[in-house]
């Protein structure tokens, strides 16, 4: 026993030195993180001061081809090791008319590979339907890009649209598949025009919730709408793929009231050539009709208290019947549900099993539809994961799936 004592005593100073070294490294890392946070906060505050002028366009707004840049400015608060720009670009609405749309583009520092960087076009979950709810308007305009740092570290460029009606004043495109998907594709066209961004023609689509609907529509339409882009795959987390199922599942609770309050004004304007406003809003109770304009002006993530104050009393009394089974809503929701055209590129789907907004049964039904259309599907489910965490839960599997895309890919076996 005595012979081992000196060795034990010798190990203690070494262990102490190791612990001190680890502590010193942690202090440096935490100090650098704090400095980075302070830099981004200060520069983000400075960016906010320029936002009103940047997003305000002359009337009438300039016209241009889809993807042409109207305005662009660098974002000083870009994450360390990257460069970023705020852009306003041309896109098209449901009727095919020119609309200005805002968004952000981020690229990792360093030289681009031969052929340019592959770009991930990110489509965000619901933030609201009013102009002030745009993600790019936030103090941190990158906050809601799920997987931002991981994707930049892998060398991808990221283009993140706000959707029409967010950021730049205009008609809302909430849950309207065509204009949302146009904006998802057109920001890639805009990103490729940025000097120094080094973005090529290879594209992957990635979206969560509302953004899942947007990128699935984009995947269905990319070959006809943006044939110059080489779409390699589409990835979704808890996608709002089947709007009829979404409404049936959610209209009885707060989520459904909120979703409907954002969709009704958008659909009333978008389908004015087919239905009168009275036909579209006839599904509302008197109390629902009175409350809808105020709810549609609130942002989901920053005005939750105000939204709850209006919506909570309307649960169970917002609509007179289920929109998914009531015309013209039944038809309109079907038209804006994914699956109308086959997706010919690989599809990644992630779904939380504890999701009470986009229910697992709805996503499983969509995956079955994809399989019936002979799609190449990779489907993952995550126990105990709710709606808000679905994209983050899916990231490890997504990062393994992305490198498999391209020529020579072996199709996945999720369709059995």
From TrEMBL:
SUPFAM superfamilies found in the cross-reference section: alpha/beta-Hydrolases
Highest taxon, organism lineage: Bacteria
InterPro entries: AB_hydrolase_fold (IPR029058), Lipase_secreted (IPR005152)
PANTHER family membership: LIPASE 5, PTHR34853
Entry protein name: Lipase family protein
Organism encoding this protein: Microbacterium luteolum
Source taxonomy: Bacteria, Bacillati, Actinomycetota, Actinomycetes, Micrococcales
């Amino acid at each position: 026993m005595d012979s081992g004592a000196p060795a034990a005593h010798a190990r203690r100073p070494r262990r102490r030195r190791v612990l001190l070294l680890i502590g010193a490294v942690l202090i440096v890392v935490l100090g650098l993180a704090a400095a980075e946070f302070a830099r981004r906060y200060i520069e983000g505050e400075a960016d906010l001061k320029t936002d009103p002028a940047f997003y305000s366009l002359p009337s009438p707004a300039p016209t241009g081809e889809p993807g042409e840049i109207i305005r662009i400015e660098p974002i000083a608060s870009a994450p360390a090791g990257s460069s970023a720009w705020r852009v306003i670009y041309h896109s098209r609405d449901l009727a095919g008319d020119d609309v200005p749309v805002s968004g952000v583009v981020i690229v990792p520092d360093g030289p681009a590979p031969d052929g340019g960087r592959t770009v991930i076009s990110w489509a965000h979950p619901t933030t609201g339907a009013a102009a002030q709810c745009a993600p790019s308007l936030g103090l941190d305009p990158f906050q809601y890009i799920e997987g931002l740092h991981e994707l930049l570290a892998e060398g991808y460029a990221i283009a993140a649209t706000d959707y029409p009606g967010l950021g730049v004043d205009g008609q809302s495109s909430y849950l309207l598949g065509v204009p949302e998907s146009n904006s998802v594709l057109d920001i890639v066209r805009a990103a490729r025009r940025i000097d120094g961004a080094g973005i090529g023609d290879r594209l992957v689509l990635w979206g969560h919730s509302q953004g899942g609907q947007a990128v699935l529509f984009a995947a269905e339409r990319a070959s006809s709408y943006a044939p110059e882009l080489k779409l390699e795959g589409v990835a979704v987390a808890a996608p709002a793929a089947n709007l009829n199922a979404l409404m049936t599942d959610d209209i009885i609770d707060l989520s459904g009231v909120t979703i409907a309050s954002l969709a009704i004004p958008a659909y009333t304007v978008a389908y004015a050539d087919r239905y009168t406003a009275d036909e579209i809003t006839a599904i509302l109770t008197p109390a629902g009709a009175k409350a809808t304009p105020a709810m549609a002006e609130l942002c989901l993530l920053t005005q939750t208290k105000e939204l709850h104050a209006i919506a909570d009393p309307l649960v169970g009394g917002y609509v007179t019947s289920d929109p998914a089974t009531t015309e013209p809503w039944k038809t309109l929701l079907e038209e804006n549900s994914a699956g109308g055209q086959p997706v010919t590129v690989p599809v990644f789907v992630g779904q939380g099993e504890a999701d009470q907004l986009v229910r697992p049964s709805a996503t499983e039904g969509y995956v079955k539809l994809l399989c019936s259309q002979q799609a190449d599907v990779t489907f993952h489910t995550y126990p105990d994961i709710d709606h808000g965490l679905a994209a983050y839960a899916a990231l490890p599997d997504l990062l393994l799936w992305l490198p498999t895309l391209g020529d020579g890919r072996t199709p996945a076996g999720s369709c059995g």
